[in-house]
Amino acid sequence: MSLEKIINANRSKLSENDLDILGYILANKESVVHIGIHDLSLQSHTSKSTIVRLTQKLGFSGFSEFKYYLKNEKKKEILPEKNNLSLLESDIKETMSLITQTNMHPFCEAISLANRVFIYGTGWGEKKAADDFTRNFMSCNVFIIPIPSVTELNWNIDSFTKNDLVIFISFSGENLELEDNITKLKLHGVPFCSVTPLRQNYLSSQATYKLYYQFTQLKIDNDPDKEYNFFITLNIVIDSLFRFYLDNYF
């Protein structure tokens, strides 16, 4: 989703001052991706805390995630110049960069302390990644309970407690069938983690913990209704989390 669409989707939350700041950012994208929050606050004549609150209104965790999104959006503008193999190399490099920037301790600690850990993948590729996640952690005597479909999630949602942990893997992060369940989890204080591509999405905006990977859509044909999703970088994130847990919590 482009920054303009994100702004429009969250227009009701934004003040006139917010729109002025966003106007500056839109007009100076090339330079904003290379500066820190202090310099941006000076150039846009506002405070650092105002910028952080603005990015959170747009669904980002803070300025760092927002800036990374801007860099990624800029790269998408030049994708036609790249071939598919170089796109894979770029996605892997960006995913590894995201992993090194992520503090995995809170999530891994939550796994180690939870009474029960559940995992749910929204589609075929996500379920396969969830199976790998479950298998990997079994080697550490951490037994994760896979949820086969949203039907079984609905069956059990009211039994989850604040001492459990739920992990959602979703390519879009915009799964309407999950929204009521996410609301229930938040109302009952049940912690949950999202694993999604790096982009603004409902699931990660609500999650207690969040992991991101980089994915670039491949143009295999000219049919706009066909979406080709591949999961190499998702599997890298899953494996990296497991290795971090192995190094620090086992």
Question: Could you please describe the fold and organization of this structure?
Answer:
- It is a single chain.
- The protein has 250 residues and is α/β, with parallel strands linked by helices.
- The protein folds into 2 domains: 3-77, Winged helix-like DNA-binding domain superfamily/Winged helix DNA-binding domain (Arc Repressor Mutant, subunit A); 101-249, Rossmann fold (3-Layer(aba) Sandwich), CATH 3.40.50.
- The chain contains 13 helices and 5 strands.
- Helix 12 (202-206) links the parallel strand 4 (192-197) and strand 5.
- Helix 7 (84-101) packs parallel to helix 13 (232-249), helix 8 crosses helix 13 and helix 9 packs parallel to helix 13 (232-249).
- The longest helix is centred in the middle third of the chain and has 18 residues, at 84-101.
- The relative contact order is 0.13.
- The model has no long low-confidence stretch (mean pLDDT 90).
- This is MurR/RpiR family transcriptional regulator.
- InterPro entries: Homeodomain-like_sf, HTH_RpiR, RpiR-like, RpiR-like_SIS, SIS_dom, SIS_dom_sf, WH-like_DNA-bd_sf.
- Residues 1-77 form the HTH rpiR-type domain.
